[in-house]
Amino acid sequence: MALSTPxxxxxxxxxxxxxxxxxxxxxxxxxxxxxxxxxxxxHYLYTPQAVILAKDAAEVSALLRAAASNNQxxxxxSGGTSLAGQASGDGLMIDVRxxxxxxxVLDNGARVRVQPGAxxxxxxARLAVYGTKLGPDPASEAxxxxxxxxxxxxxxxxxxxxxxxxxxxxxxxxxxxxxxMINTADPDADRQLAAAEPQLVxxxxxxxxxxRTNPASVAKIQKHFALKNTMGYGLNAFLDYGTPAELMAHLxxxxxxxxxxxxxxxxxxxxxxxxxxxxxAVFDNLDLATxxxxxxxxxxxxxxxxxxSTSLRVGQGVPGVxxxxxxxxxxxxxxxxxxxHADAAEELAGLQxxxxxxxxxxxxxxxxxxxxxxxxxxxxxxxxxxxxxxxxGARVSGTTALLEDVVVPVQSLAETCGSxxxxxxxxxxxxxxxxxHAKDGNIHFMLTDRFEGDAxxxxxxxxxxxxxxxxxxxxxxxxxxxxxxxxxxxxxRAQYGDELYDVHxxxxxxxxxxxxxxxxxxxxxxxxxxxxxxxxNETIEVEADHCVECGxxxxxxxxxxxxxxxxxxxxxxxxxxxxxAEGNAELAAELERDYEYNGVQTCAVDGMCVTACPxxxxxxLLVKRLRREDAxxxxxxxxxxxxxxxxxxxRAGSIALSIADKFPATLVGGITDAARKVVSTDFxxxxxxxxxxxxxxxxxxxxxxxxxxxxxxxxYLPACVNSMFGPAGEGEGVASAFTKLLHAAGxxxxxxxxxxxxxxxxxxxxxxxxxxxxxxxxxxLEEVRAAMPGKNLPVISDASSCTEGFAHTLEAHxxxxxxxxxFTSKHLLEKLPRIEKISSxxxxxxxxxxxxxxxxxxxxIAEAVAQTVNTPMNWGCCAFAGDRGMLHPELxxxxxxxxAAEVRDLDAAAHASCxxxxxxxxxxxxxxxxxHVVELLAExxxxxx
Length: 945
Fold this sequence. Notes:
Helix content: 40-55%
Structural class: alpha/beta
């Protein structure tokens, strides 16, 4: 395979390995790809030599076999949310997320078969309809994948050790470094393993006997694994399992990619408890909060999440946090998020009463009431799950957040937390934070510093030594659930002693004789290894500078399977800044050049990343800034002129589409393709057969629209996109449909006289043309002010992204902007005649409807139209993004691939969304005709009139 030489240097991975990949595009050796994959959620930075997007388990088997033959270090990467450095490496990285996302529910939800690239949230969404879920419940469930859950023996907030990965995994298919693949569910798995790996099985037998016949080893294993424990290998498997395949499988759990690749796993699920009460109780200090734990635990609390004063202080600046942490100046306060779960009301009442008695007698800042209030509970959990990233995001620019994860017996937790705070003070880590799963004695603490230079590194090392001594003196474990990684690899011997550490070494050597699987993780004899290669980030654009690279944004990003994710866009910006700071002009130039397409052109700027980001970063704003700074003066002037003459411009676009619709699509498409080669694929849209003809002018709608003689309820701004693009098929378009509904409901709205020249401004903001946007925003404000003066009416629009755009322009001036969905749901539905429902309807919520909280209105309207309403499990932003889907159709193709397959399988009677360009994108992706849901409502409601 021919490879270009990137500025990072020629990759050292042998061509005999890379040539095993049949499609060259799945081998990534450019500097931008290697930099993008270098960073995970940890505080370490290792840049791979090459990245391979593996196709399937068979290919991984071949790659591992070849890597072993070439002594090539390999790191497996799935979600990249691990916090101890186990998902990064400087050899060959194999991506086992992109093509490994299959989920198969078994036995009506009692079991589930999953590949390593599926996230916990995706699996639980599939299981929810059966009333079950996975046992492990990590806070990063939105982004962490099954591969990492198994590799780290993940647990979480409620599952403890009873329902963690080790306890709930039924079987797995694993691939050893030799390439041997074993499915432990096969009846003859033991025979297969012994035949393929006789030396490995012999070593397992020897180690099994060695551990079980040593009383001291047995006692030490039982002591450490009575608590949460992901320090070192899962040696408890030697006590729990005796047959080779099952023993090997349970040793692989928690092995962090150092022993084998897990290609597939079957989990036993756990039932979702039907009822819950929760509260956030704020104590005067951390000591009081931790000393309250034993009684709360004895009362049957399902979760007890601890948050210290720094957590609360940061939380006060996060939108949507619970009221309990607001309204006071944080000093030393600490909080417990407390929940009780039950399946029956009587059982819940008993638990609630017991818990409330304890809270009523506790020294709290304010009374804490256990309640079933879903809104407060959701707010509390959103705050808690995003706490690490929120706190880390509040750090000083240029510093690194380092998160540690320890566990001690619950009765020792208060004293341990006090001692940790003393260590923070002793070593000058004044902004440190403590939070975690107090029910299990499992706490996380975070240090922030620029870990650079002898003074900083020596300070951290000295703190670490004291911390290790503290935790072990309390009978605890140095890692509870985040995995050993690189951070604690040098301290495995300290926790287990020489005898059991030697068992670690023999196990590793037996499975991975060439020590090529994730070197430096779990096993590392270098006592300073944990302070090497710590991230030292340069300051970048303010929109993204506080990113902690947690990866929560990645599953919702429409370009994740095509180019870069939001995290990777930010990581590459940091690499560019670092290259410039170090004077590496060649690398900076290469990264900038490749970033134009991978980072800028293929970003949909849809803002979905902000819905998942605990720090509130909208990477789309970063990309808009870059587009604005790089805007070509001629194009900027052209778009400003278009803003001034928007009415004629939209009509010209509509006419052009109508004319194009009369000619063969191949002819028109050929012309635009030729033009794209000459001009730019980021400027000239591509025409295809799915594009409709032009739409109707908006000017005839001006004035009172709807029932004559009625007082207008709102100012209506029909979106220009619905005028430029005509309706689907035989449909009438959303404006005409809305007009019919107004008449049917007996109400009216007012359309400004200058509507033909009005736009939400999104075409200018998304492309970075600030002057054009300012011109349009001024016109919109003037027209709205002149419409129905003195009435103070809400402003509505009929395309969700346009509603969002109008809101950005008008809300700062005191106007209420609502979408047509919300208006229809609130003012029209109940006034319509009886509707004859269609059999089924599949919805595509949009990124804007999601961010504006409109999806409940979308669902409500859909349920008025159809007997069965489906929203695909694989729903996501379609990435059509105005004209982005015509400029870069490959972006929409990639973004919609999984949803489109599901839509075709559902095969509903009708398909709907709430934004015309999204409807175009989904029509192209699925071959199904998508229309605005209000069109379908009008069709059904006026059928009998």
